[in-house]
Prior knowledge:
single chain, alpha/beta, Nucleotidyltransferase, domain 5, 5-stranded mixed beta sheet, globular
Amino acid sequence: MENPQSPITNSQFPITILGIDPGFAIVGYGVIEKDLRGNLKPIDYGVITTHAKLSFASRISQIHNELKGLIEKYKPNIMAVEELFFYKNVKTAIEVGQARGVIILTGIQAGLSIKEFTPLQIKQAVASYGRAEKRQVQQMVKTLLNLKEIPRPDDAADALAVAICSANSNNLFGDFSL
C-alpha cells in the first residue's frame, strides 16, 4: 500500500524507517536509518505495552497515541508493518488485526509511505532464509545493525527486522527511483 503524498527522493537521505511488530498487548517498534550507500544505522527500538485490565478501546487508543508520538519524534519516511500470518486463537487474531489497522491508519494520517511484509519475506531479507528460526533472525538483526547484544524484548528485535526488510526491499522507493 503506497501513500502517494510521500515520494522519496535523493534529497531525503538518509531514509528513516519505522518498523512495527503489531500486537495489542505489546507492539514492537524499531527505528533505523539507511544512507545513500545502503548502510543501516539503529536509531531506537522498544515496545508499546498496554495493560490487560484496560478496555480494548483504551488499549488501541494508547497504541495510536504512543505511535503518533514516536512518529513525531523520529519523523520517519516509511512505516514498515509485519502482516498477520497465523494465530491459533481467533479472538487474539481479531484483536491483533484491529490493532494493526489502527497502526496503519496512524501512519497514513502522518503521511508516511506504508510497506507491509510477511514473516517469510522478513526472514528471507534478514537471515537469507525464509524458514529461519527466531534466534537466527535476532542474531542477524544484531549483526546487521552492529549492536552489542540482541535487542530485547523479542518484539523490539522483530520490529527492527521488519525495518531492515523494508530498507533492503526492492520496492523501498515504490515507483520512484534514485
